[in-house]
Amino acid sequence: MPELPEVQTIVDDLRQKVMGHKILDVICDWENLIREPSFRKFKEEISGSIIEDIKRRAKNIIINLSASKTLLIHLKMTGHLLVSSCWEFKRGKLRKIKNAQCPEDDPIASDKMNQFVHLSFQLDKNKNLMLSDLRKFAEIRLVNTEKIPEYLASYGLEPLSKDSTYEKFKKALSNQKGNIKQVLMDQKVLAGIGNIYSDEILFEAKIHPKQKTENIPENKLKKLYQEIGNVLKRGIELRGNSVSDYRDTEGRKGKYQEVKKVYRREGQPCIECGGKIKRIKIGGRSAHFCPKCQRK
DNA sequence: TGCAGTGTTGCTTC
DNA sequence: CGAAGCAACACTGC
């Protein structure tokens, strides 16, 4: 679920909310979430550390801690990070902290994602950084900071980074033979794009998802590069999409789903030409597109 | 009621 | 070798 714009929104919010905080303790009822080291070591090593910096690479959240340790978090399909001063994770359940001040319309109180909290970092100043995950696919690692580059070595171009250029993009795609939809989602080629944004990007660029990457003409490729930037930036502006269950660190929905044009709109009219949006399978995933606007 | 489908990724299989 | 399938898990919707 969380793709680049959602992960970026989470990272930006976390920077505001938990930077400089100390991690006092960790509570967890699904230790498989912690991929390394063992939970016992994890707890021991992380307790007492300070959150020094928070960044994103691809769909990973990177939290630099004091003592040269780094937390690497991947939310996969249904993971969420929540920051709250009025909820705590105790005896396997999310519980309201007595006498704590909650926001009037606290979404955590009503949203059913509150049933799926499996881990909580207890921070100083009465804050909790919690991970909820219905499907339990999320992964957390605690590694030595110097090792981080190895973990991130295989990722491709960051489409929104300052040094991303059309030439680099073109080069990244130059030896790709498959269909463009799958290439866009290949994290080794481009970092951060998933099923939803790839559909929206291809619609904006007027490219058929099954178009062979090597056959895309130069002008279309330029357009594609521009639209990747436009769509992802719009996603961040709208704080991500909650087509499904994405929520930000307060438990609130994003707004990008209100402007999406093709994803999960099978059978509905195309915003631009009125034709019917189609859904096909590509690599086992659903691809949505307008057959009139997007030609091979 | 039951089964296909779901945002991700990486491993296994053919 | 590359592409396809599947597993990790649990819920929703048809």
Spell out the key features of this protein:
alpha+beta, 4-stranded antiparallel β-sheet, 8 helices
Describe the overall structure.
- The chain is an alpha+beta fold.
- The protein starts with a helix and ends in a 7-residue tail after the last strand.
- Strands 2-11-5-4-3 form a 5-stranded mixed beta sheet, with helices on one face. A 4-stranded antiparallel beta sheet has the order 1-9-10-6, covered by helices on one side.
- Helix content is 26%, strand content 24%.
- Strand 4 and strand 5 form a beta hairpin.
- It has helices spanning 4-18, 39-46, 107-110, 148-152, 166-174, 180-185, 195-205, 218-237, and strands at residues 23-28, 34-36, 51-57, 60-65, 69-74, 79-84, 87-90, 93-96, 117-123, 128-133, 139-144, 278-282, 285-289.
- It contains 8 helices and 13 strands.
- The protein is globular and about 55 Å long.
- It binds a DNA duplex (14 and 14 nucleotides) through residues 1-3, 6, 32, 59, 74-78, 116, 133-137, 139, 177-178, 185, 187, 194-196, 241, 243-246, 283-286.
> Distance between the terminal alpha carbons, to the nearest Å?
28 Å
**Strand-pairing-aware structural class:** alpha+beta
Shape: globular
User: Low-confidence parts, pLDDT < 50 over ≥5 residues?
Assistant: none
Helix content: 25-40%
Reading the helices and strands in chain order gives HEEHEEEEEEHEEEHHHHHEE
Side-by-side strand order of the widest sheet: 2-11-5-4-3
Q: Please give the count of helices.
A: 8
**In percent, how much strand structure appears in the residues?**
15-25%
Calculate the mean pLDDT score and round it.
94
- Global Rg: 20 Å
* Strand tally: 13
User: Mind describing the biggest β-sheet?
Assistant: 5 strands, mixed
